[in-house]
Model the fold of this input.
Amino acid sequence: MTAGEDRAPVAAGVVPGLALPDQGGVVADILAGLPPPGAAIQAETERLNGLAIASVSAKEYAAAIPLLQRALSLNPDSVAIHYNLGVTLALINRTAEAEVHYRKAIALNPKWARAWMGLAGLLSARNEFSAAIACYDKVTALEPGNVAALNNAALLLRRTGQFEAARARFARALTLAPADPRMRFNHAVLEDNAASQQIAIETCRQCLEQDPRSPGLLNNLAICRQTLGELDAALASFDQAIAADPEFHEAWFNRSLLRLSFGDFDAGWAEYEHRWHLPQVEKPGIAAPLWSGEPLDGKTILLYAEQGFGDAIQFLRYVPQVAAYGGRIVLRLHRSLVRLAATLPGDMTIVTPGNRLPDFDVWCPLLSLPRILQTRLDSIPGEVPYLVPRPALIERWRRRLAGLPGRRIGLAWAGNPRHINDFRRSIGLERLKPLFAIPGNSWVSLQKGGHARDQLAQLAPSTVLDISDELGDFADTAGAIANLDLVIAADTAVAHLAGALAKPVWTLVPFSPDWRWMFEREDTPWYPTMRLFRQPAPGDWDSVVARAATCLTGPAANPGDCAPHRAAAMTK
Done:
């Protein structure tokens, strides 16, 4: 099991994007193509609907609901009344009831795009992204020029990692509304180059001229500035977003990532707790109290791996520290990590999602441990290895890879395609071809997934040994890595695993990196045997590959060494 299955939902921050309204409010037309009822009933329905519209306009939503319900009792087949009731219920977060009325409106008139649009917005707010995208596609089938449907579907496609489909819809929306700065912004932020990021910044500023204290716009501007390396300006924009709305958790969370990148761990870890308030993050419904660092004295603590594989591997280093507080540990991990984590010391039980948890007294999310244990830049528990491959697996892979000549180098070039930042952090295998031309190396693919196999098929036979079908879990991957001289990886779980095993690893990171890789430096206190190869400009993988190729032509005796190199200067 390798980086292709990394689930990390929030570690890269909140995606910037400008949505358009999903619905235009309640409507006055109660017929919507259906035959009218009797004249008296028609008149009373119109009167009630008019009163409801006035109440909604005055934001008196609770007053509008009984009016619409009365109208519906008189005219149960009114598409508009069902729609209006759906809109009003959604405004007060009675979403289950709202969905019933949206769907009834659609059943009565499947060609009414407005009802599909309202339902799409409701499903999107509930993080039911596939269903919401399908509703937006219904709208564009009915109304090919509906810019809001194209734009909002593209935002969801991007959030779910379907980047090419998102680009196509953004491009159509931009063609239909070329003067709309929101369309230019959303189209630009999906391109990983400096020119597009500058366009995104300028269009975001245009939007801010109309709404200068919008926390969402300020948050988007901060993200774009950070992506372009304008770090001081990014921090200032996050500050402005929070000042405009102290309850805007996206800006708090994104600012925490920037502060962690600076090494400001005291403030960064505290603000990182805002992740639990993000709409895409569901806090576990655990009744036991959160652990705050007190002695355990024989109590049992649940350590909960709430994010992706790479995050779990990185923060498993804290398990022995927690065990030193004198308690028993229950570790909840994805099944693919169980055999790997079982080598950790201490009195520990490992459970997987879906299985019943044993009794425990307190609990703690794995990524809250640095805050509770007061980790600072100079106190990161960086001793490696803290994970150990199983001897039987080391021997198995020794025999499997024994015939490979020269240096044996493992390769992982792509992460989870649904990661929100994957279009920046993953590298096409084609871009790595200059490495394969260097003599004296044997290449071993640690990448999993059908897409990886398709890319490998484009290379000359025997260029890279594909062992993906033999990697059942991360314990298998660890056994293979133990028999390699070097691992070269994009920012994926494989890079974390190699670092945790104390294997020389070169990690290829984008210009605007994930928080843990910080800025400019090409070493990391998290993994002493890791070297970072940074893009000198957004999207510039060719320079990264060229530098790695230069290092590979050096002495074969110590592939972990590479002369220090600094990326393009970034202010902070």
Observations:
- The longest helix spans residues 39-57.
